[in-house]
């Protein structure tokens, strides 16, 4: 009938969580069947032991005290039929509802999608390097280029450069399935460094050296022209290094910018193909 039997050691019934869960379920079912008549709870039990379940005694050698009256087979069959008709379907329905609710909560908590974000959609990614409350929670925007076999995402920035790492679904926030507008991808340049600033806060402008261009291309740009705040934060951290803050405390030292170059996916693919070709040619 789909009823699972759970047992535990007689001298320590509290040591088996399965048995305790079964007792809890049985108690809940009996309470529903009482319909407000709590004093009739024993009518729904075939055998009642006149001992407390939490006594630390070994009952393995104790025989159950059964009633002298013989069991009426017809009455027993009616009870079993009632269990199969009412209790078992109710338990099954409750189990299904609980599983569906747990599954929905798990998928929501872990941001599991029925369908992945479409190729070309515009997304933001979680700022894993955040170390201050004022740092942004998300970075971007980026566009979805593809997927890995593990379900992570391959992303590109506005300059169509690949991110050096794959991004899991839990770190992605969808902005638009239409992707980054074409006009935003045009005339996109990478900041090599900020050289100087002008004006008073909060109306600063920054002298920018662009990656791949010489000093003749340096230009003054307002903060609104930057896609993120990392370049500006790095500039101020390096400029104020070692100087006391307005509260008299020493400023935190900036992070190093001499980062190890990480190969892009294209570079890895070219190197792997060259290695395979060298092996096969031998």
List keywords for this structure.
single chain, 282 residues, alpha+beta, SH3 type barrels, four-stranded antiparallel sheet, three-stranded antiparallel sheet, 5 helices, 30% helix, elongated
Structure, described:
Pfam families: Chromo (PF00385). This is Chromo domain-containing protein. Keywords: Nucleus. InterPro entries: Chromo-like_dom_sf, Chromo/chromo_shadow_dom, Chromo_domain, Chromodomain_CS, Heterochromatin_chromo-domain. Residues 189-247 form the Chromo domain. The structure is a single chain. With 282 residues, this protein is of the alpha+beta class. The chain has 4 domains: 1-69, no CATH class; 73-109; 117-177, SH3 type barrels (Roll), CATH 2.30.30; 189-257, OB fold (Dihydrolipoamide Acetyltransferase, E2P), CATH 2.40.50.40. It is 30% helix and 15% strand. It is built from 5 helices and 7 strands, in the order ααββββαβββαα. Strands 3-2-1-4 form a 4-stranded antiparallel beta sheet, with no helix packed on it. The protein has a 3-stranded antiparallel beta sheet with strand order 5-6-7, covered by helices on one side. A hairpin with an 8-residue loop joins strand 6 (205-210) and strand 7. The longest helix is centred in the N-terminal third of the chain and has 37 residues, at 73-109. The radius of gyration is 34 Å and the shape is elongated.
